[in-house]
From TrEMBL, chain A:
A Pfam family per the record: DUF4395
Designated name of the protein: DUF4395 domain-containing protein
Membrane spanning stretches: 20-53, 94-115, 121-143
Stretches assigned to the DUF4395 domain: 13-146
Key words of the record: Membrane, Transmembrane, Transmembrane helix
Length: 151, 170
C-alpha cells in the first residue's frame, strides 16, 4: 500500500536521455578547462550556458543534447524499463545554468580566470550525472531548503 | 582584454600542462565523489534508541501518518520523505511500494518535504529520499537515504524485526 503525496507527474522521459546529454556537456566543459583563462574558453562556456537555458525553462527534452540522444543514441537502444519524471533533470539544468552563467558573467566582466573554475564545478556535476546518475543540484536542494527561514 | 599573440613557447607548454593537471584532478574528485556517494546509497542504519526524556525528534509518526491518511503497519512502516526535484525518490517509491504490496503488515508512505518542511527539521535529514523504517509502535528503528534497492529494503525490514525480537529493555 502506497500513499503517494507527490503531485501528479508530467509525462515521463527516457532516463538515459539526461545522462547522455550530461556526458556531452561534460566533454564540452572539460575542453573549457583545457582552454584555461582564455577568450576561446569564454566563448565555449557561453555556448554551454545557453544550451542549459531551454532545459531549465522547458525541460531536459528541449536541449540540443537531448535531440542528439533522440536522433543518434535512442534508436540503437532497447526501450527503457521505466520512464522518469522530467522535473528532477530540469532542476539539474537550472543548477548547470546558474553555475556556468556565473563564469560567463565574470568572463565578460573581465575576470577570465573565473571561467575555467566555473567550468570545473559544472564539469564535476555533469560528469557525476553522466557516470552514476547523481544529480548534485538535487542533493543540495534540501540543504538550500534548510537554510531558508522557517515558513 | 589584451591578447598575447605570440606567447613564449615555454609558457604555452607550462599552461597546457597545468590545465591537463587540473582536468586529471577534477576526474579524481569526480570518481571519489561517485564512489563515496554510491557507498551510502540506500543502506539502512539502525537508529540508536534515545531515552524518551531527552528525545527531541519532535515528530509523532503516528500523527504524521494519520495526516497522510494512513496508519502504522503491523510489521513495519517505510516512511519515505521525497522531493519533486529528486529522481532517485521515484525508483525508491517503486521499490518500497512493491515490497509493501507483496508483504502483509508492511506499509509504504511517501511524503513531499515541500508539504511538510517541519519534518526536514525534525529528522535533521540532509538528502532526499530519506526513508525512516518505523516499528509497529511508531518508533524510528532504522533510516536510509538515497536510492534503495529491493535487497536493501528487505534487509532494512529484517533489521527492524530482528531488533524487536532481540528484545528491548524499555
Amino acid at each position: 500500500m502506497t500513499e503517494n503525496r507527490t503531485t501528479t507527474a508530467p509525462a515521463g522521459i527516457d532516463p538515459r536521455g539526461p545522462r547522455v546529454a550530461a556526458g556531452v556537456t561534460a566533454v564540452l566543459l572539460a575542453v573549457v578547462v583545457l582552454l584555461g583563462a582564455s577568450q576561446a574558453a569564454l566563448v565555449l562556456l557561453t555556448v554551454v550556458a545557453v544550451s542549459f537555458l531551454p532545459g531549465a525553462v522547458r525541460g531536459p527534452q528541449a536541449t540540443w543534447q537531448a535531440w542528439l540522444f533522440r536522433v543518434l543514441v535512442r534508436p540503437r537502444l532497447d526501450a527503457p524499463d521505466h520512464l522518469e519524471d522530467p522535473r528532477p533533470p530540469r532542476f539539474a539544468q537550472l543548477v548547470g545554468l546558474v553555475v556556468t552563467a556565473v563564469g560567463v558573467v565574470a568572463g565578460f566582466a573581465g575576470a577570465l580566470a573565473v571561467v575555467p573554475w566555473a567550468a570545473a564545478v559544472a564539469f564535476v556535476a555533469a560528469a557525476l550525472n553522466a557516470a552514476v546518475g547523481l544529480c548534485l543540484g538535487c542533493e543540495l536542494y534540501l540543504l538550500g531548503r534548510r537554510l531558508r527561514p522557517s515558513a | 582584454m589584451q591578447i598575447d599573440m605570440f606567447p613564449p613557447a615555454d609558457d604555452e607548454r607550462t599552461g597546457m600542462t597545468m590545465q591537463w593537471t587540473a582536468l586529471v584532478a577534477l576526474l579524481v574528485v569526480t570518481v571519489a565523489l561517485a564512489v563515496g556517494w554510491r557507498a551510502t546509497q540506500g543502506r539502512a542504519r539502525t537508529t540508536p534508541q534515545v531515552a524518551d526524556a531527552g528525545h527531541d525528534g519532535g515528530a509523532d509518526w503516528a500523527d504524521v501518518l494519520a495526516s497522510a491518511g494512513t496508519t502504522l503497519g503491523e510489521r513495519a512502516t517505510f516512511l519515505q520523505l521525497s522531493a519533486e526535484v529528486c529522481s532517485s525518490c521515484r525508483s525508491t517509491a517503486r521499490t518500497l511500494g512493491d515490497l509493501a504490496a507483496a508483504t502483509p503488515g508492511v506499509v509504504h508512505v511517501e511524503i513531499d518535504v515541500d508539504d511538510r518542511p517541519d519534518l526536514v527539521r525534525a529528522t535533521r535529514m540532509l538528502r532526499t529520499p530519506t526513508v525512516l523504517v518505523l516499528d509497529p509502535d511508531g518508533a524510528e528503528a532504522a533510516r536510509a537515504s538515497g536510492a534503495m534497492t529491493p535487497a536493501q529494503a528487505r534487509t532494512a525490514l529484517t533489521a527492524v524485526e530482528g531488533a524487536r525480537t532481540a528484545g528491548r529493555t524499555s
